[in-house]
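Entry type: protein chain
Record version: 2
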Amino acid sequence: MFTRILIPTDGSDLANKAAKNALEMAKLQGASVVGVYVIDPFPYIGLGEASALGLQAYMEEVQVAAQSALTQIRAEAEALGVRYQGDTIERSATYEGILDTAEAEQCDLIVMGSHGRQGMKAMILGSVTQKVLTHSKLPVLVIKP
């Protein structure tokens, strides 16, 4: 039924649960998976050396988090014999990064957790999952806790 499944992750427990579900589905259907970690741009707070150092520290930290999250999905995909590719991208709106990746990678399903690490921000602005559901032209499977 599905041939290429997108797995957006933020490294949270629920994102990992969604990834496991997506990988099991991919194995059953002979599909491949694409993991994506969307990096929020560095919040610009001013000029000068401190800002440059803050950007460098921020980018190092998010790259480590992204690699950790994607490496976990890769390891689970390899253990199941599922074809995998993963990448990080930078977008100011996470949901747009997810949808852009789904289109660029020609995915036919998105599997994601019902919420991630956003906490109070998600309650105020609306969750990434809600925005993906609203704007996606593809089926979206939402995994709940």
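Comment: The longest strand covers residues 32-39.
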